[in-house]
Amino acid sequence: MEQEVKKRDYAVLVGLRSPVLREDNTDEESLAELAALVDTAGGQAVGTILQSREKPDPHSFIGEGKVEEVRRMVEEEQATMVIFDNDLSPSQIRVLTEMLGVQVIDRSGLILDIFAQRAKTREGCLQVELAQYQYLLPRLIGMWTHLERQAGTSGKGPIGSRGPGETQLESDRRHIRRKIDKLKEELEEVRRVRGTQRQRRMKNEIPVVAIVGYTNAGKSTLLNAITGAGIPANNRLFDTLDTTSRLLQVSDTLDVVISDTVGFIRKLPHQLVEAFKATLEELEYADLLVHVIDVANPQWEQQAKIVDQLIHDLKADQIPCIRVYNKCDLAFSGERAREEDAVSISAKTGEGIDRLLELIDKKLDKGTRRVTLHLPYDKTGLLDSIYREGKVEKIDYSETVDVVAICTPRLLGQLKDYIEGWREEKQEWEM
């Protein structure tokens, strides 16, 4: 019989529900998502405690009585750590660690750990490292309280009498600030390279489609289904951290670059939003967003709102967007109101993919057409423009130079005298 895989940690999950916490509030669904995050990190949740209070305790966050209840559960379940669903201050983490006798982290710390495990490319690793240092910097003071401090902590002792703890703390702060500056420089270089690639795409007039959505909504499965990208697509949170881009032929007259992006989640650490700007800035320059929504999840409406808010925060809400209701093979979608720019699909079975491609084609249609041209030999100089701005599919040399090509509206205007069966399209007011 196979031996059971040993987990990295066994965790008790704790959340606080309070009217003053607003976005950082906790409920049963949020704790269930935290348990899934623990599983993704390689741990196992062995118990949960949800506390309700008017406001957080400034010292221990949940109050000393509740801390004692958590401590008993840690002992009973032989837990190795306690994870809070809410953000904790450095001093609260220090106090709770002393009172509970095991490691204490908050949701942001857990998400950063998952990102550190998942990042593969140099860019992804740089972004995670930057976020970790930004998260660590304000928490340093709590990590150095175990070092004895001598006289001078009040600022009134003689010169040179400050203890090793304070000296080490300042040294570490300087070291981390230097690391943060260096990482920001390296990420700027990543942005510069990405900008060069983007300019090349814009020059070639290839539209960019960005797939966005809540974590585990099925974005990678969708990209695999329409491009054969072969990205690992597992049923776990944050399975994709590094952006994958593929060239996709949407229709006979439209090629696009389609990109998978990191999944969004509620209470995403603000350090990560900042650090991942180099990846997420692709959204700002996208021609179309494809928002994937997992309708098999009971919380899909709330998840879609979280993604919409993050798109707004990234200043990408002016970009046209198609809502893709995924996993329709697992959920009945007939009750939803009909939306113009929406489609129900199953990325796993392929149902609705054709309709999605038609909708992408319709949204990005800029008047590109496939035409047959008959060029006189004294006009063959126009071939340069066709090769440069269009896509030549076939060319024959007979009485004239016969070309089948996909042409942009600008090319069509230049070449209309030589296009087979050309008719000027009438404007609505002319009809």
Main features:
431 residues; elongated; disordered C terminus
Explain briefly what this protein structure is.
The protein has 431 residues and is of the alpha/beta class. 40% of the residues lie in helices and 19% in strands. The strands form three sheets. The protein has a six-stranded mixed sheet, sandwiched between helices.
Shape: elongated
The strand count comes to 13
| Secondary-structure element order, N to C | EHEHEHEHHHHEHEEHHEHEEHEHEEH
Total helical segments: 14
Strand order of the largest sheet: 6-7-5-8-9-10
What's the main sheet like? 6 strands, mixed
* Ends apart, CA distance between termini: 77 Å
Word description of this protein:
This protein is an alpha/beta fold. Helix content is 40%, strand content 19%. The chain contains 14 helices and 13 strands. The chain has helices at residues 28-40, 64-77, 90-100, 107-118, 122-136, 140-143, 164-203, 219-227, 270-275, 277-284, 300-313, 353-363, 382-389, 409-415, and strands at residues 10-17, 44-52, 81-84, 103-106, 208-213, 244-251, 254-260, 288-294, 321-326, 342-344, 369-375, 391-397, 401-407. It has a 6-stranded mixed sheet with strand order 6-7-5-8-9-10, sandwiched between helices. Strands 2-1-3-4 form a 4-stranded parallel sheet, with helices on both faces. Strand 1 (10-17), helix 1 (28-40) and strand 2 (44-52) form a beta-alpha-beta unit. Helix 4 (107-118) runs antiparallel to helix 5 (122-136). The radius of gyration is 28 Å and the shape is elongated. The model is unreliable at 144-163 and 426-431 (pLDDT under 50).
